[in-house]
Design a protein that fits this description.
With about 400 residues, the chain is an alpha/beta fold. The protein is built from 14 helices and 10 strands. Strand 8, helix 12 and strand 9 form a beta-alpha-beta unit.
């Protein structure tokens, strides 16, 4: 199992600075703008994983090449780019099959990963709590399991010699068995986490629960801090928040509301992460109200909002009542403050700046009004004032 864990993307203090070539394929259904933005986002993800992007290789194709992801000519171009830039990593902007990774690594003679593996690496780096570590390791092992053929192809022969001849277990079979066993252990731990979360949700049923959701780096943690007067970690980087953080606040006529900050979403999010973070994402599914935080300064904010909507539907939260909060309006090319103040509240759309605290008063009043409209659940004691639910972001 020790050998298998070496394949996981954990932070190491002595790891070399990786120089990456990013590779993308533009399909007919993708616009030039979306394709360029996706590669820019991939470069930002690489930077979040402390890799330096030294070159880009792109190709326009009708379909993905089943053998190499890109055509043979582009494989040679990528190999030349590796030589010129001394790159030691290739990152592809789509999920690769185990065979594609194996074929590319043979041709390029360097490590090859896909976007999903990169995101898993970032999650592994940012996971600071026990709960997050369990969830990330589970996702990493689920991702790694079908790729063990690539990792251990050179060890897939039975060991010979005195005392070892005859039927036996190959290294590959052993690794798969140990990986499945570890996944089973982690699955049991996730069940315990789910039970703990359920206990916390029961304690909060009498309160009005508001979850902040949105595309990664939309400013959820900054807005959370502004609404709750907290100081959770908020940086201008992708996946700053992994662990959900909850705070109880009194608004309006003293009604207690619990705000919860959650992990950000992104396009092409590995399904293993969605599955393993189910306990955390249940905070979203069982919320009374969602604040969908949208980076209004981003040129493709509508697409980001669409991605978030798709993930919400995937986790069963598509029908939860929602307020759309268009954040970073102070950085938008147009002034929407007056529109946001006068028109948007009636449509549950608000234009705000969390950093400059613009438009927050109206947003809080709207949240308080919705909370008052909801019938208060009986039973329980209001004992969560200022108490953390679950774990803090770091």
């Amino acid at each position: 199992m020790t050998q298998i864990r070496k394949q996981l993307h954990y932070t190491s203090s002595d790891r070399l600075q990786e120089r990456a070539v990013i590779v993308g394929v533009k399909l007919p259904t993708v616009s030039d703008f979306e394709f360029g933005e996706s590669l820019d986002e991939l470069a930002s993800l690489a930077a979040s994983a402390e890799a330096s992007v030294v070159a880009r290789v792109t190709q326009v194709r009708a379909r993905i090449d089943p053998t190499f992801f890109i055509g043979k000519g582009k494989v040679e171009e990528t190999k030349e780019a590796i030589g010129k830039t001394s790159a030691n990593l290739v990152i592809c902007d789509e999920q690769l099959s185990p065979a594609q990774v194996r074929n590319l690594e043979r041709q390029l003679e360097t490590k090859v990963i896909d976007r999903g593996a990169l995101i898993l690496d970032i999650f592994g780096r940012r996971a600071t709590t026990k709960e997050a570590r369990v969830q990330v390791e589970m996702a990493q092992l689920e991702y790694l399991l079908p790729r063990l053929t690539k990792q251990w192809v050179h060890l897939s022969k039975q060991v010979g010699g005195i005392g070892t001849r005859g039927p036996g277990e190959t290294q590959l079979e052993s690794d798969r068995r140990l990986t499945r066993k570890r996944i089973s252990v982690l699955a049991d731990r996730l069940k315990d986490i789910d039970k703990e979360r359920e206990v916390q949700r029961r304690r909060r049923r009498e309160f009005f629960n508001v979850c902040l959701v949105g595309y990664t780096n939309a400013g959820k943690s900054t807005l959370f801090n502004a609404l709750t007067n907290e100081k959770v970690w908020a940086e201008n980087m992708l996946f700053c928040t992994l662990d959900s953080t909850s705070r109880a606040m009194k608004v309006g006529n003293g009604r207690k509301i619990i705000f919860t900050d959650t992990v950000g979403f992104i396009r092409k999010l590995p399904h293993q992460l969605v599955a393993s973070f189910r306990a955390t994402l249940d905070e979203v599914r069982f919320a009374d109200l969602l604040l969908h935080v949208i980076d209004f300064s981003h040129p493709n904010y509508l697409k980001h909002a669409q991605v978030v909507g798709e993930v919400l539907n995937e986790i069963g939260a598509g029908d939860v009542r929602m307020i759309k909060v268009f954040n970073k309006m102070d950085r938008s090319p147009e002034a929407y403050l007056e529109f946001g103040q006068i028109v948007a509240p009636e449509a549950d759309k608000f234009f705000v700046s969390a950093t400059k605290r613009i438009g927050l008063d109206l947003l809080i009043k709207r949240i308080a009004a919705i909370a008052e409209d909801r019938k208060v659940r009986p039973g329980g004691k209001e004992s969560l004032d200022g108490q953390k639910s679950g774990i803090d972001s770091r």
